[in-house]
Hints:
alpha/beta, 7-stranded mixed β-sheet, 6-stranded mixed β-sheet, 46 helices
Amino acid sequence: xxxxxxxxxxxxxxxxxxFDFTLLFEHSMLWLVPAGVVILVTPMxxxxxxxxxxxxxxxxxLWVKLACGLALVGIQASNIALWRETDYFRxxxxxxxxxxxxxxxxxxxxxxxxxxxxxxxxxxxLSVFCSITLFFDITMTRSYFFRETLGAIAVLQVCVVLLKVxxxxxxxxxxxxxxxxxxxxxxxxxxxxxxxxxxxLFLWLNPLLLFGWRNTFTLDNLPSxxxxxxxxxxxxxxxxxxxxxxxxxxxxxxxxxxxxLKRELAQVFLPLIFHTGLVISQPFLLQxxxxxxxxxxxxxxxxxxxxxxxxxxxxxxAVTRTLYEHxxxxxxxxxxxxxxxxxxxxxQRLRTLDLENSAAVTLMSTDVDGTEMLFQLVxxxxxxxLQLGLGTWFLYWFVGYAVFLIFIPTTxxxxxxxxxxxxxxxxRTATNAEAQKxxxxxxxxxxxxxxxxxxxxxxxxxxxxxxxxxxxxxxxxRERYSVLWTFAFGAINYTISPAIVxxxxxxxxxxxxxxxxxxxxxxxxxxILVTGPLxxxxxxxxxxxxxxxxxxxIYDYLLQEELRDGRNAPKRASQETDDDKSPVQTSRQPLAxxxxxxxxxxxxTGPVLKEVSLAIPWGSLAMMxxxxxxxxxxxxxxxxxxxxxxxxxxxxxxxxxxxxxxxxWIINCSIxxxxxxxxxxxxxxxxxxxxxxxxxxxxQQLPLxxxxxxxxxxxxxxxxxRQRLSLARAAYAEEEIMVVDDIFSSxxxxxxxxxxxxxxxxxxxxxxxxxxVVMTTNRLELLDFADQIYLFxxxxxxxxxxxxxxxxxxxxxxxxxxxSNDEASENVRARAAGxxxxxxxxxxxxxxxxxxxxxxxxxxxxxxxxxxxxxxxLPAILSWIIFVMIATVGEWSPVLCLRIWYAHKPEDKxxxxxxxxxxxxxxxxxxxxxxxxxxxxxxxxxxxxxxxLLKAAIGATPQYHNETDSGDVLNRFGQDxxxxxxxxxxxxxxxxxxxxxxxxxVGLIGAGSAYVVPVMIFFMVVLGLVQFFYLRTSRQLRQxxxxxxxxxxxxxxxxxxxxxxxxxxxxxxxxxxxxxNELNRSQKPRYLLYCIQRWLTLSMDSVxxxxxxxxxxxxxxxxxxxxxxxxxxxxxxxIQFSDTAVELVKYWTHLETALGAVRxxxxxxxxxxxxxxxxxxxxxxxxxxxxxxxxxxxTATYKTSDxxxxxxxxxxxxxxxxxxxIGLMGRTxxxxxxxxxxxxxxxxxxxxxxxxxxxxxVLRMVDTTGSISIDGLDTRHIPLELLRSRITTxxxxxxxxxxxxxxNLYPFLGDRPSDDEMISALQSVxxxxxxxxxxGLDADYFKIGFSTGQKQLxxxxxxxxxxxxxxxxxxVIDEVTSSLATDLEPQLQHLIDVSFNGCTIIMVSHRKExxxxxxxxxxxxxxxxxxVLRRRSNGDFVEV
Length: 1440
């Protein structure tokens, strides 16, 4: 036998006859190669110095690290001398390795110095290099000690090991205190300043987890995640690549993202490849262990080798998986920041019409999430294909050509999955569409809940929403049943594929050479590792399609045509920040606006403006008026650059304009913030603006003053207050030009005159700084103050008039009721592009999460499970659990059958029939358990929960709806119902399945050795504790993430709705910066949630690694206490245990998080106050018969935000005789409508006049004392729905449902009117011709495109039809003519008098013209009856 010296001269790698490497191999691969790596890397560090600044000061930490580095240099120099003197082994490789190591040590010193001074983060390269080579050095140290003559070198090698350990530890010390920038010392993230192993093992997260365990997270106390996540920086990096990439390619967006994040995306592959290699090595460890146990006599070196290999494999498995998943999620977080910024940037440059469909809101949430999923799938598919290829190759070693039999079921299931994927995609699209319809309908209903209750429509609307839910569930069941095919294909790959491959090996390729038990288990392990990726590939098909569709929609959005400003206007300079803010212009144009032969045509309605020419001088007040739909609003938007020209030219003196639209845009902020916008606060200017807009009285009566929140869309304010607040914002901006679109339409005459005089009058605030004002109005009395007057005609022409032209003849010529029938029909049908059209249903915005405090520290509430599962019933629940238990056991039954077979008679081929039957049974049980769940549990749950929720929402008291943000209520029907009945319902099924699967695997591992049972119990306890520790922080971060996402959602929604204002004011940069801040805040909880999920994965993998090491140690040290079959089966369980445990905890966490939706639904149902009907009262068959209303000491109260009661009506005693027409008056704008009161600003009730409250009191919509009697019956004794249905109510806001015109015209229960009756009602208000031309009764209401005035006429037609069908004797009308021209009032009042002849009519209006035919008028002030006016026979009113 050759001497050891001779054997060491061989490359090896194994030293023959020894558990060791040859020295030549060690010096070549473990010494020379690593030294070369360091030398090659060093120039990159020196290159980095040239373009970097010193970021860290020297300190004791640097000197200690340098001392270690210099010590390494000395040791390597000594090594050269010792190796030259040794007689045991001489080699040129050794001398080269010594020399290279010396140079590498010197390079290491340089790297230490550079990395310390120029990087905030400890050196990753040094940590990784020292950690890897540490194992090499330990190996070489062991080899040297085994060679008797190399003792001195061995001692030096020990020193090298110790120095590298010290360097690894030192590189984990953060350098925060040595940062040159004091700002970075406080803002740098914990991850940024942590060392490699601190980051890899997520030790930096432990303080966060402890904080979450003990405290409550908010956005403000979350730690920083680092400047590398700054969205603005990422967008700036992305923009050049996006502009350069060819837009003709469908992959343009993907390529731009890949080039922007090439390093971040590429680095994921390195740990991913290592991880895959470790995964595929598990079967060989299993085979070696089973072979060793079967031999019965295991040498200590073999046992120790197996234990070491298990530790290295499984702990390496844990670290590499954590690293690649973490780097992957870092990359997708970067992608999210880039895409959301890109979408918002594009949104700011789109045409107004393209913003109306809220596409950006969907893109930034659903489609960005889908794109993130797509990039994750790329890595997952790469890993699956790599694992599948390696697994197939290794299987070929064991079973030969039989391995290719796996592709028979694979091909069939792939084809089936492809077909099923299409089925699921179509079914899911249909389900989402139906869900969207239901949520939109619910949003539409909740936005008008006061009108619905007032009109007695609670029962009808409940049935309307329930029918949509029923349709949604029926469509969803098609998707659920399609998913069963996915279950079947997964089970086929998991059980049938192994059975086919095993059959091929048993009867064909290995028939002459039967597999041993160890080989059998190795083959089964490889089959598990091969079929797992196959299943994932099949199940990811739908997700892949979703991701591709998502990024495709974003790509299409980014390529949409942008708004082209057709004006000749100075380019906007950056906004000034001083008090006198105005755009800086290089040269001022002679006119503020000049139009030459301008024509505008709408794509849908034809010509709007024809050959319009006008010139508006600087400092003038130009006023425009004309009939409805004559193009006034279109012209104003043309002046703003928001409308495209067909011909002509438009010149503007400034590109920055203060703009007030007729449909006001108010963001959810304080009144003060709404006024100042993005300007600096100047108190004197602010106070002057508030007074000029008559907001000072309103603010003084609010407990919070101008800190009062406006609410979503200004919902906490009345229409008049919103318009005056919009005016205040425009006035505060102090721009040179102001454009105002009929801003006084909802303001009472007295207030309108006051505000106009203070702002636009001869000495008005706006005129004092020589501002040019362009204004449209329907208040002809204001035209006297104009410098220029322009009259719009319905044929699209604009004529300039002088003050003397505004007389009755001119007015009559435009709007007189004496025009011909053809002219009248044409007037009704006229529809001008750009004018306000009723094309969007009233909606409320669904929030991402409710405003309740995060519930992360709540313990598990079992009552939630009971509440959730109760609709299914106990028998169905128990049957389903038993079914799942049987199906779970069925998954392992084929493997158990094989164990029994090979333990008794492996040569008996009859056992194969049982094995095949078990495999087929597994598929059947999987599908059957899923079908049972979907049919008997899922469907009942989805129906039952929505039914309870809808009943609670519709039946809630009006006061509750007044005090509650409807967005929170909608959230229950949108996000929470989706979580509870779609996501949670599936999570529970998967969780129960995984729970039983985990218990079975633990049982199998415990069966491998009796000594392992206590250890497994201990680790199950540890697993539970880890989960519990993780869950509290995870739930809190999830809550905070939802809250931050809600702010982002609000920013997108508000910007989309107000983009015309943002562009007009020149606020694009300010709003983009605000979006960046909100996005950066939302990235923090999202990224930290990703991180703690990786911490959980690492913890579970570490538990599995320790379990495996302990099991192998027990099995190899005490082989007599187990069998090779038991060990093989246990290790099969161990291979899957980690993944199963991680999935179980993740599902548990998702389950607990999703249960937050159930908690919110349960709390809503339990806590929402419901309207209670009195005991049944006996009513006459016809009631009311006369319509007499008696108010007896009536006092109506509201609760303010501080909890105190406020009287909106005080001690009203009055009688309205049957058949009378009574008007209610009171100053609006300062007197809030009851529909707009929310809990955050309920104080606004103190600003009421009381007139609308009387209507609410009659309908029992408010809390009252005293009494109201109708025909002698106290309304408190009459069921609410009956009372309201017996009164025909026409509210100002009306009711507009996202359905057909037919349903909108008569949405009531009971007998329905005929088509002729409906058409007659529409003809009576002269809107049938317009409706007929746009689809008739069956057309979608919002596609008909009624104008604001036509919309109110439709409400009147509904009231006429309802009274005609029901013969009600009381009619309530609230501001039904507020958006119509004043000259039309006589016609409308005549129509009302004729249609409701013999009825008691209560009419609310701020127009005196509305009461010309009234029998009397009640005038209210601050809740008290101020004056009573009675109409004389000559038509004059006299006070009584």
